[in-house]
Amino acid sequence: MPRHIAITGASGLIGSALSHALIGRGDHVVAFTRNPQHQGTLPAAAQRILWNPRDSQATATALADCDTIVNLVGASIAGTRWTPAYKQLLTTSRVASTQQLLAAVAQMPHKPTTFISSSGAGYYGINAIATTETAPAGIDFLAKLCVDWESAAAPAATLGMRSVILRTGVVLDSTSGALPLMALPFRFFVGGPVLPGTQMISWIHITDMVQLLLWAIDNDHATGVYNACAPHPVSNRTLSSAIAQRLNRPSWMPVPQFALQLLFGEMADALLIGGQSVTSTRLADAEFPFRHPTIDAALANLW
Q1: Whole-angstrom distance, CA of residue 49 vs CA of residue 5
Q2: Checking CA distances to 184, which of 50, 58, 158, 279 falls within 20 to 30 Å?
Q3: Class of domain 4-169+205-229 (CATH, top level)
Q4: 300 contacts 246 by C-beta, under 8 angstroms
C-alpha cells in the first residue's frame, strides 16, 4: 500500500534523492520547500508545497493525509563563512522551523505516525575520536546547533509519533554537495590534503543515505538516534589520495590551515581542519546493509 510521506527541505541533496526514490516505488510525496527556485530538483509527480513554517494552519493542512514526516530542513552548513548573521540563519532554519513544524502537528486531530529528523555528526564536536551513538555532545557551535535541533525534534515522541534522529556525516554525491568541491582542485592538478591530514572524515554515500531513510521509514522497530555514517571513516589524507586516484591526478599540494581560516573563519575549523571519527553501533547491530561501506567503493561508484 503506498505511503504518504512529507519531506521538509525536499529540494536539497538528500531530500531530492529521497523524493525520487519514494516516487519510484509508488509512494506519494508532499515536498515542502521554502524557495520556489529550487523545486526543479524534485520529481514531477511530487506534490509541491511552498512552505512558510510560521503558517501552522497551512502546514497542518498540507500534512493531513501523511503518515510520515522526514525533516531535512536547514540552510547549508558548508561553503559559506559563518558570520553572526549566517550562524543565526543556520539556527533559525533548523531549530525554529522544526519547532514550528511540530507545533503544526500538535494541532492535527489525526497525526502522522512517524517523525524522522536529520541532525549531524558534528553533534560530537571537533576531533571526536572512535565515536558511537552513546558519546556525549561537543561544545563548539556546530555541536550546540545539533543539540538544539534534536531538542526541537524531541516533542515528536510526546505527540505519539515514532521518532528517529539521524546524525549524518558528509554525504558523497558526484554532482552536488561536498564531493564536487573537494574534487575541484584535483581536476586542476593542484589538489592535496588539508593539513594536518590526519583529521578524520565521517561520510556516507548518497545511495546509502537514501536507503537508510527508507529503512527508517519502513522499519517500525527503528527509533531513537542513529549515526548516518559509513562504517569506515577515513583521514583527510586518505580521502585526498582516493580522490586523486579516481581522477588520475596527483595529490601533492597540501592546503595550509591559515589559508582556510582566512577564507572561511570558524567554518574552516569545524568542517575542514577538524573532523570526527563517527560510526554506528546501532546500525551494525541492526545489520543495516551498506552498499558502499568503504571510500574506494563509494568513489568507484560515483566516478
Answers
A1: 13
A2: 279
A3: alpha beta
A4: yes
173: left (phi over 0), alpha (psi -120 to 50) or beta: beta
- Give residues with Cβ within 8 angstroms of 296, minimum separation 6: 242
- Domain residues of the chain, as ranges? 4-169+205-229
pLDDT at residue 33 is higher than 90: yes
Backbone dihedral region for residue 224 (phi beyond 0: left; psi -120 to 50: alpha; all else: beta): left
The cell 561520510 sits on which residue? 203
Cα first-last separation, the chain: 36
Query: In whole angstroms, what is the distance from residue 271 CA to residue 251 CA?
Result: 20
Q: And the C-alpha cell for 18?
A: 529521497
Question: HSE-up of 83 (CA within 13 Å, CB side)?
Answer: 3
Query: Parallel, antiparallel, or unpaired: how do β-strands 68-71 and 28-33 relate?
Result: unpaired
Angle at 205 between CA 200 and CA 209, to 5 degrees: 110
- Write the CB contacts of 198 (distance below 8 Å, at least 6 apart in sequence): 235, 236, 237
| 59-83 per-position pLDDT tens digit | 999 999 999 999 999 999 986 889 9
Q: How far apart are CA 232 and CA 267, in angstroms?
A: 24
pLDDT 10s digits, 155-193 = 999 999 999 999 999 999 999 889 998 898 999 998 999
pTM of model > 0.70: yes
> What sign for the dihedral angle of Cα 113, 119, 124, 129?
positive
Residues 130 and 253: their CA atoms lie apart, in Å, by 28
Q: Which helix (H) or strand (E) is 11 found in, with range? A: none
What does DSSP assign to residue 63? T
Quote the strand ranges of the chain, DSSP E: 4-8, 28-33, 47-50, 68-71, 114-120, 128-131, 162-168, 170-172, 200-201, 203-205, 224-228, 234-235, 276-278
